[in-house]
Design brief:
Layout lengths: L13 H8 L5 E5 L6 H14 L4 E5 H5 L10 H20 L3 E5 L5 H11 L4 E7 L2 H7 L4 H6 L21 E4 L5 H16 L3
Parallel strand pairs: 1-3, 1-4, 2-3, 4-5
Helix pairs in contact: 2-8, 4-5
The structure holds adenosine-5'-diphosphate.
Adenosine-5'-diphosphate binds next to helix 2 and helix 8.
């Protein structure tokens, strides 16, 4: 076999890719109740960052549970495995220099700690979308609260399964009395320094 010159035998590193993209890659991890606004803010933030020249990718239940996690349900073990795989996938995005915006209920400290451990403390930016249960339930975007109240969905976070609020999130956004645009701008202002080149 032909000898491969050492210069071609190693992969390009994260630093090269970050500098190519003119940004620092991070995982922006949105946690909060169903209907709190995670996906809406994540989508708005993706657009805003992209419009400013950043390269971003959103990971959420829609694009992971239909593919890489399509063999998982909602038991405790499956929820953990869901977050484990999402976290490992996020790490690959980090290595590609890409800012990853993750939107997952991730209801317990244990589950978020696992994500933090896999991703690495300095790259895991916890964003708590803090919306009172009553408001999430009023919004009931997907009609899930109604089903949970009727007993048609078991172990629904906020109803018959706990949500443990993060103790010291990097960002806490209160959406109850805010427009979507204001919430997106609020999060953007908090994270922009973290992802800008040093
Ligand atoms: P989650 O992803 O947390 O389940 P969604 O983003 O799907 O929640 O739904 C949140 C709903 O709340 C959307 O219908 C959105 O328009 C509405 N909403 C009202 N105000 C806000 C706000 N300030 N930020 C985010 N969403 C808001």
């Amino acid at each position: 076999m032909e000898n491969i010159h050492p210069i071609f035998s190693t992969l390009l590193g994260r630093k090269e890719k970050e500098s190519f993209l003119n940004q620092r890659s991070k995982v922006l991890w949105f946690t909060g109740l169903s209907g709190s606004g995670k996906s809406t803010i994540a989508a708005g933030l993706e657009k805003l960052l992209f419009s400013k020249g950043h390269f971003v990718q959103v990971l959420d239940g829609d694009n992971t549970r239909t593919g890489i996690n399509n063999n998982l349900g909602f038991s405790l073990d499956d929820r953990k495995e869901n977050i484990r795989r999402v976290s490992e996938a996020s790490k690959l995005f980090l290595d590609a220099g890409i800012i990853c915006i993750n939107s997952f209920v991730s209801p317990t400290k244990e589950i978020r700690n696992m994500a933090r451990q896999i991703i690495g403390d300095k790259d895991f930016i916890e964003i708590f979308v803090n919306t009172p249960l009553e408001i999430c339930e009023q919004r009931d975007v997907k009609g899930l609260y109604k089903k949970a109240r009727a007993g048609k969905i078991k172990s629904f976070t906020g109803i018959d399964s706990p949500f443990e609020a993060p103790a010291s999130p990097a960002v806490e956004v209160m959406t109850a009395d805010q427009t979507v645009e204001d919430s997106v701008q609020f999060v953007y202002d908090k994270i922009i320094k973290l992802i800008s080149p040093e």
